[in-house]
Structures are given as C-alpha cells and as structure tokens.
Amino acid sequence: MSTFSPEQMAHATAVLNSVRDEWLARDGVTAVDLGFKWSQGLMTGQLSIRVHVAEKLPAAELSDQEMFPKEIEGIPVDVIEAEYGLQLLPGGAQLEAAPQSRTARYNPVPLGVSVGNPRITAGTLGAKVYDAASLLPMILSNWHVLVGSPSAVPGEPIWQPGALDGGHTTDTLATLSRSVLSPYDAAVAQLTNSREVLAETVEGSPIEDVTAPQLGMMVWKSGRTTERTEGFIDGIKMSTSVNYGAAGVRTMQEVFRVVPRPGVGDIEVSMGGDSGSIWVDEASGRGVGLHFAGEIGNAPEHGLANELQPVLTWLNVLMPAQRPLPPDPTPMPIEPPDVPPSDDFPPPPTPGFWQRLWQRLRTAWQSLFG
Fold first, then answer.
1. Domain with CATH 3.30.300 in the chain
2. Residue-wise over 13-27: b if at least 16 C-beta within 10 A, else e?
C-alpha cells in the first residue's frame, strides 16, 4: 500500500479544503474526501481528491459547469459513485438479526454488544471511557444509538441489550449524559454501577487507547450484527451529508471510509446494528474511529466513521489509557540532612560526657566553698 509524505498530505489537504464546500453543495454530490484513486473498479496507489456522487453520468451528458477537473494544483480528481446513510435510522423498525452472543444480557459487559436508548431498536456499545473532569466511567456510542431524538434529555435510561434484543427497564446500564450531532454522531452515558463495563470486546481484544487514522491502515471492528470484521482505510478527511430523519440532514466532518481488503471479495464490513462500534488499528491495537454509517446500495458496503480523538475531545472524555496516573499513596520519608562536624557545629557529646562534666563542676564547688 502506498504511503505519502507529510508534505504531500498537507498540500493535498489544503487543496481539498479550498474546494470542499463548493463541491459538496453541488447537486448529486454525496461526499468529498482525500483518498486512493480508483480506476476501472480497482484501487490504485495514487493520492487523489475524491468526489462521491449518487449517480455517475457519462461525460457527454454533463455541461462544462457540471464537470469536475481531472486535477487541481497537481492533485488528481476522482469521481466515485457512492451514496451514504445511517444503517439504523432513529424510529426505524428494520434491523438485521444478530448472533445471540451479541444480543445477550452481560454482567460484566464487554464491548461490541447490543445497547441502546429504549426509543431505538439496538446499536453497539463501542468503548468504555471516563469523564475528563470527574473520571467517572461512561460508555461511548452514536447519537442515533444512545439518543435517537431531538427531544431527548440527559438522564434517559440506556439498556443493555437494546430494546429489539429483549432489553427492558431492568436492563438499564447507564443514563444519557451528553451528545453531539454534527459535525460528529456521538454520545456518552454515565454508568449506573449496576454492572461493570469492560475495556475489551467479546473476543477479548482491549480497546484502551487512540491514534489517528491513516490512508491504507488495516483496521477491524467488533459490532452487534456482523461481529468482528476487517477492512482498510481508503479515504480520510471526508465531509458528507446524512439524513437523520426527525433531526434533519446533518453534515458530518472528520470522517474516514473503510472498505474490504483487497482479494477478499464483495463482503460487508458493517451492517445495521453495528453503529457505535470502534474501528481499531490492527498494528497498534488503538482505536481510530467511531462507526456511524455505511454505503447505500449493493455490496460491498463501505463503512463510515468519525475520527475518534476529535469525538473524545468534543465530549470531554478520555480513553482508559488517557487517564492521569493516580498519586503515590506512600509518602517518601524525610531524611535528616547529613551535616559534617565543624568549628561552628561541634560534634554531639560522647557517652558519659554529662556525667564527667557534673563531676568537674562538683569538685570545683567543693574547692571553693568547702
């Protein structure tokens, strides 16, 4: 897989930013990003600015104003036919079936299992995080998994498993704390302390730290519906508009795209119910993104995720490895200074010193006064 220098990435990002808003506002454009150029259905190792459109039309049917340039400031431009949307629309009743191992009620609760606000069907518990101020434990997932409505308020119950998977009031695991919908799709809920939440997935893989996504990075995720799937990142720095039903169409930023790895065929890297899962860098074991949407249409389905660190910063939470170290509970003993003898500070009296001094004073007294 091709790698690019920091200078190449900085230049390409600056060019992308210069056209991002204008191109995203055009009719039929579903997303713009920076990624590998595709040619005749095959991915090349060439870095390009990519325009995603709902329908890719022949050049003969487009006017000059509708055509995108073949390159801009030395960066190739690639037009990709792709449309994106939520895999779980708030209020929707349809959701793919999931294995029993992902829909069961757990105690303690691993990552990658069914969870949700009672008003939605079910999504995925992505990560265990901590409030940056209080250091109290929380869970991280999507807005459309833990919130699901513009009328939601803090304190609403969060069930594990989610409602579709048999959850009910007695399965309350946490209460809604805070959320964001545009530029990210994310929310956190504070644990009720009724059950412990682990910092590892059902498979036993820890998700405790965070790193930045990179083009070509091999990643995996553990989700409620498709369980553990693998892919690689073929696009970063994406902006895309997503329909959130009653919450309207929202523009998502700092998004990256995950596609099947070369040679594995037309597989689904994610499906409905996987929303909220964490994409993890295979090499380091660190989380890189919060999964929230996928490609609409035929397989293979390409997943979308918000970069994880900006989400954590916005919600003011920390991954387990980011927590400050606790103070040492055992204070260090204070040793007296080692001061050498001197004329100003004579050495301490030797054993018998005071007795000999008393005898001398007594003898002098007797000689003077009898």
1. 1-82
2. bebbeebbeebbeee
Q: Which residue has the tokens 């340039």?
A: 69
Residues contacting residue 356 through CB under 8 Å, at least 6 positions apart: none
User: What CA–CA distances, in Å, run from 10 to 7, 14, 75?
Assistant: 5, 6, 12
Residue 195 has pLDDT above 80, yes or no: yes
Scored b (16 or more CB within 10 A) or e, 174-204 reads bbbbbbbbbbbbbbbbbbeeebebbbebbee
The C-alpha atoms of residue 130 and residue 139 are separated, in whole angstroms, by: 8
Question: Tokens 């434990």 map to which residue?
Answer: 137
CATH value of 1-82 in 2.40.160, 3.30.2010, 3.30.300, 3.30.420: 3.30.300
Tokens linked to 254? 């700092």
Question: Residue 138 has which token pair?
Answer: 């929380």
Please give the Cα distance from 21 to 86 (Å, whole number): 22
The SS3 of residue 59 is helix
CB 142 within 8 A of CB 183: no
pTM: 0.86
* Domain covering 100-201 in this structure, CATH number: 2.40.10.10
Domain(s) labelled CATH 2.40.10.10 in the chain stretch across: 100-201
Residue 83 to residue 154: CA distance in whole angstroms: 33
In the predicted structure, residue 280 carries a pLDDT above the cut 80: yes
Q: Return the amino acid letter for 186.
A: A
Task: Report the b/e string of 108-121 with b at 16+ CB within 10 A.
Answer: ebbbbbbbbbbebb
Is the pLDDT score of 332 beyond 60?
Answer: yes
- 125 touches 113 (CB < 8 A): yes
